[in-house]
Amino acid sequence: MPKPEIHYSVAFGMGFYIAEDGTLMSMPAFTNDSDSSDVAFDIGNEIPVDEWDDFSVYNSNHMKLLASIVGICTLKRDYVNIGYYAEKFRPEKALRHSL
Fold first, then answer.
1. Confidence (pTM)
2. Element of type H or E holding 71
3. Among 4, 17, 39, 57, which residue's CB has the most CB atoms within a 10 Å radius?
4. Which of 18, 15, 41, 20 is nearest to 30 (CA)?
């Protein structure tokens, strides 16, 4: 399977993606001070969102944003998977394998 596309949220300062089992994952993100568009993710410290320690630090606007992030990550996951399967089962490849 292809690697997931990570969505960066400035509001949370984290990257998000949906794992193969459907879990919304989060990880710390770091920006280069001289270029705020240069973002790196600490994948080694990723955790499922449902395992966050304290949701009380977030307000209702954060929760609305998190709901939007789930939608964005779902679309990104589906887009990546569609491309993967379209390439894998492309008619030319299917014909070569059947011969």
1. 0.77
2. helix 60-88
3. 17
4. 41
User: Residue 56: helix, strand or coil by DSSP?
Assistant: helix
C-alpha span between 54 and 73 (Å, rounded): 22
Sign, CA dihedral 85-87-90-93, equals negative
**Alpha carbon distance 26, 75 (integer Å):** 16
Tokens 């949220």, located at residue: 9
Taking only the tens place, the pLDDT of each residue in 21-79 is 999 999 999 987 666 678 899 999 999 999 999 999 999 999 999 999 999 999 888 88
Token digits for 87? Answer: 């390439």
State whether residue 50 is helix, strand or coil: helix
